[in-house]
Write a structure and sequence with these properties.
Blueprint (H helix, E strand, L loop, with lengths): L4 H16 L4 H12 L7 H22 L1 H15 L5 H22 L1 H5 L5 H22 L12 H12 L8 H11 L4 H23 L11 H25 L6 H18 L1
Length: 272
């Protein structure tokens, strides 16, 4: 089954908009073809590289949006190697540490998890679970004192990284899971969202390095659509990041939790 350019652009827009919103872009991209009968090769071995290409566009958009901050983080990291303590350097190493759990398990579980990409019922179910998880994060936040990312301990950063592992399952949001992890560690919404968005970049780039070569070898016919979808995803992700950075300065997760639950429930009805 071939993937058209128009369909690829549509999927890219959905991915870019929903990757930063806590609705599991991966889950939606698994559900949508079944619910709308789009012509999409959803079998894991072919669809996975295409999905990673969309995520690469998102990662590039995040990198560009946070480029001044990433420069400060990298400079700060080199300063820490010289023994100079600074908040930017500490944040950089916290991001590195928090990226490890999903990186290791994503590599080890890549093959079994790829089979879930063709099972939209499971994705819809976990989209509802995702809504419950976001509600729990909102509940945690209301009962903890807010703090900044730089006050996190190494253990707490590792725990947030373990939350990111949940996003390997279609239907569970990466940004949502890491935000909930951050809220559980006492971060406020703005700090949890910022750490989540920064944490997205290295793990998505790492996945792209592994999966994108398959667009040339074993995923024939997807290179062109993947490029179009990736570009559209990047533009959509930049716009959604800009919106959400402002949104989480004064809003929480409760409304988004309800939206995620309803999306899952409606998806179950649509694909049964």
């Amino acid at each position: 089954m071939e993937l058209g350019i128009g369909t690829a652009a549509l999927l890219g827009a959905i991915q870019g908009l929903s990757e930063l919103f806590p609705f599991s872009s991966l889950g939606l991209l698994v559900i949508l073809p079944r619910a709308t009968h789009l012509s999409v090769p959803t079998s894991g071995p072919r669809y996975l590289p295409f999905l990673v290409a969309l995520h690469l566009g998102t990662a590039l958009a995040l990198l560009l949006y946070f480029l001044p901050e990433w420069r400060a983080l990298v400079v700060g990291a080199f300063r820490t190697l010289r023994g100079e303590h600074n908040p930017e350097g500490r944040t950089f190493w916290l991001i590195v540490l928090a990226s490890i759990p999903a990186g290791i398990l994503g590599f080890l579980l890549k093959t079994p998890l790829s089979h879930l990409f063709g099972r939209p019922l499971w994705a819809a179910f976990f989209l509802m679970v995702n809504g419950a998880m976001l509600w729990m994060g909102d509940w945690w936040h209301r009962r903890r004192r807010s703090r900044a990312v730089t006050t996190l301990s190494l253990r707490e950063a590792w725990v947030i990284g373990c939350f990111q592992v949940l996003a390997l399952i279609p239907g569970l949001s990466r940004s949502g899971s890491t935000m909930v992890g951050g809220l559980g560690m006492g971060l406020n919404y703005a700090e949890a969202a910022r750490f989540s968005f920064l944490l997205a970049t290295p793990i998505i780039f790492a996945a792209a390095l592994v999966e994108l070569p398959k667009l040339h070898h074993g995923a024939h016919g997807l290179l062109g659509p993947a490029m179009v979808g990736g570009i559209v995803a990047g533009v959509a992700a930049w716009l959604s990041t800009r919106f959400l950075v402002r949104y989480f300065r004064s809003h929480g997760l409760r409304t988004l939790a309800l939206v995620s639950f309803l999306l899952g429930a409606l998806s179950l009805l649509a694909i049964r």
